[in-house]
TrEMBL record:
Pathway: Purine metabolism; IMP biosynthesis via de novo pathway; 5-amino-1-(5-phospho-D-ribosyl)imidazole-4-carboxamide from 5-amino-1-(5-phospho-D-ribosyl)imidazole-4-carboxylate: step 1/2. Belongs to the SAICAR synthetase family. Keywords: ATP-binding, Ligase, Nucleotide-binding, Purine biosynthesis. The gene is purC. It comes from the Bacteria. It comes from Thalassobaculum fulvum. This is Phosphoribosylaminoimidazole-succinocarboxamide synthase. One of its GO terms (molecular function) is ATP binding. GO terms for biological process: 'de novo' IMP biosynthetic process; cobalamin biosynthetic process. The keyword ATP-binding applies. Its EC number is 6.3.2.6.
């Protein structure tokens, strides 16, 4: 395949110029980071699995009318997406207390929240992605009130839908992070769409019966069985590559 221009290398993915203007190729790496980049490692096969899991979830979302950047999967580690203007706000939706929420408010992990809670974080590695309020977001111009309304409405719909989808395969959706971007149509109208990825890297998923963690917390907390957890999520969703773990290394990143 022809060499493509690398536009950005992040912690989990590489972005290449796509075949047509307005498109990008997302290459999924096996690299894993946690605690704002302080912990680094490799989860073998993660890139292959997240590529498939995110493809699956984004496709299901577009089927219910949730707009996403996803166009199609190209190969084991790459997918074609629409290039968007990333809104620098991470939306976290929580259904069950875990992680930083449990810590900050002294809640026991696993406490069911009285209702789904949405949090905003400003996307900045240098600042360690601080939590922010609507006031900060609109005052600093990171997103407008219309963008925010759209993002929250989409996030809640996605939450309701994904809770049911994961429940159907025996997983509890504890919390997850979304990124959104702006797409401009030919009339210069703005559409807010889901971007980045939805995978066990940015969802907390617990087995419904055993409460076993099936996501990146296994890496963050050195629980072991990290590769197996990602494989199990893919298997339950019916997207584990046919050849199984044998097939998970996939092609290496092009230089
Ligand atoms: N459709 C898209 N158009 C433009 N940029 C995108 C799109 N989807 C995702 N991105 C951006 O591509 C990058 C994906 O790489 P990766 O997830 O590895 O980043 P990261 O190291 O986690 O950094 P970040 O903190 O920016 O997410 C992110 O910065 C993400 O915001
Ligand atoms: Mg990222």
């Amino acid at each position: 395949m022809a060499r493509r221009r690398k536009l950005y290398e992040g912690k989990a993915k590489v972005l290449y110029e796509g075949p047509e203007p307005g498109t990008l190729i997302q290459y999924f790496k096996d690299d894993a980071t946690a605690f704002n980049n302080q912990k680094k490692g490799v989860i073998t096969g993660k890139g292959v699995l997240n590529n498939r899991i995110s493809e699956f979830l984004m496709t299901r979302l577009s089927e219910i009318g949730v707009p996403t950047h996803f166009m199609r999967r190209l190969n084991m580690r790459e997918q074609l997406v629409r290039e968007v203007e990333i809104i620098p706000i991470e939306i976290v939706v929580r259904n069950v207390a875990a992680g930083s929420l449990a810590e900050r408010f002294g809640l026991e992990e696993g406490t069911i929240l009285p209702r789904s809670i949405i949090e905003y974080y400003y996307k900045s590695d240098e600042l360690g992605s601080p939590m922010v309020t609507e006031e900060h977001i609109t005052a600093f111009g990171w997103a407008g009130t219309q963008d925010l309304d759209d993002m929250v409405a989409l996030a809640l719909r996605i939450n309701d839908f994904l809770i049911g989808l994961f429940l159907g395969v025996g997983l509890r959706l504890v919390d997850f992070k979304l990124e959104f971007g702006r797409l401009y149509n030919e009339h210069d109208e703005i559409q807010v769409v889901v971007a980045d990825e939805i995978s066990p890297d940015n969802c907390r998923l617990w087995d419904i019966r055993t409460n076993e963690k099936m996501d990146k917390d296994r890496f963050r907390r050195d629980l072991g069985g990290v590769e197996e957890a990602y494989q199990e999520v893919a298997r339950r969703l019916g997207v584990l590559p046919e050849a199984g773990p044998m097939d998970l290394k996939g092609p290496q990143a092009m230089q």
